[in-house]
Task: structure prediction
Amino acid sequence: MFAALSSTATDVTLRPDGKACVAAVESYGNEAGVDPRMVLAMALQEGAPLRSGLNKDFYKALEGDPSSYNPKWTGPGSGEAYDKARLEASQLGVDKGHGAGNSIGLTNQKEAPFNESKARYPDKFKDEEWADLVGNDDLALKAAAYNLKSLQDEAAAHATPEVRTGQTLNQFLSSGYNAGGTVDRSYNVATGHEGFNDGSNGKNNEVEHGASTVKPGGTFDLANKILCESGAFR
Result:
């Protein structure tokens, strides 16, 4: 068992448009056998700040009123155009500089983990392709749920006692999601053959990503408020 996780919550009431999103989160999370709160936490931590047009102010804006959560924003950073640009850049072989490829969609997913999930669960994705994540929030949430399932079942399940006691399962999954999202990478971390990047090598800080998810007031807590305390998910 991974280290214990605690969370805080406050009663909220969701708007109708928010309910549509959390219904998808609940459906895909339960279908995949992962915590729906983690699916929503990845959306909140990955694509949501840009989509809202609020960027770093996104979490502050939601902190007191998570009922304002709505994936169909019209802010200046509304997301779809940005995703299209990233997709076109990927097709030209251009990424953000870390060599891991670009991420697109509400849950900010790379092509490799999407294709990995499609190969593992072909009945869930059928004719859907990574490029279809642009402007398709429902697909993005499903892709995140099944990516988390792969990381949970194929990597975290094999974690050494040292890895399990050093972090919660959700922290491990969040770091793994941010570390490219592929099973092989997270499996190597789980079995002690390598670690998640801490940013000291100039690359993405995967350790911080996981810690930000599970810290008090982090994206998991916010997802817990939106899902559980609204009555949308118990």
Summary: Residues 4-16, 71-77 have pLDDT under 50 and may be disordered.
